[in-house]
Amino acid sequence: MIKKYSPNLLLLLFSSFSVFNLTSCAFTPEALKSLDNTLVAYERAIRWRNFNGARALQVKPMKVSDFKRQRLKNLRVTSYRTIEKIVSPDYSKAKLLVDIRYYYDNAAIERVLTDRQVWVYDKAHDRWRLDSPFPDFKFH
After folding, report:
1. What is the pLDDT of residues 31-61, one digit of tens each?
2. Is residue 81 helix, strand or coil?
3. Domains of the chain
4. Under a CB-based contact definition with an 8 Å cutoff, are residues 120 and 128 in contact?
5. For the purposes of burial, counting CB atoms within 10 Å of the CB of 46, is it exposed (0-12), middle (13-18) or buried (19 or more)?
6. How far apart, in whole angstroms, are the C-alpha atoms of residue 118 and residue 132?
7. Which residues contact 125 (CB under 8 A, 6 or more apart)?
8. Ramachandran region of residue 62, left (φ > 0), alpha (ψ -120 to 50) or beta?
9. What are phi and psi of 64, to 5 degrees?
10. Main-chain phi, psi angles of 97, to 5 degrees
11. Strand partners, 129
12. pLDDT value at residue 1
């Protein structure tokens, strides 16, 4: 036996589902959008060797020796891929696992660096900051 539902009930259920579906997409926190924009800026800085720009996003920017700065000039990033991104429920912290593929101009060996990043939301300055070390690109 097939049950017949009132057209008004079906319309009410469909409308409720549609409104719920639309509003759930509309409540994405601004902090999450800001995080995505910051992650893209950081990725671009690493990919295009703007290491000063990447370090500017750190909570505690590391000092770079002249030797290391010279070596970084010969670094070429071939790939930057986010493997995992976990954002805390209160949108104040994010943990990323990123694979960075790179090589040096004077070597024909592509290397892979797995970078574990911790990003924290700085409410005072309304921005995300990297609270983990700069990627440790191996020279040998």
Report:
1. 888 999 999 999 999 999 999 999 999 999 8
2. strand
3. 30-130 (3.10.450.50)
4. yes
5. buried
6. 6
7. none
8. beta
9. -115, 125
10. -120, 120
11. 120
12. 52
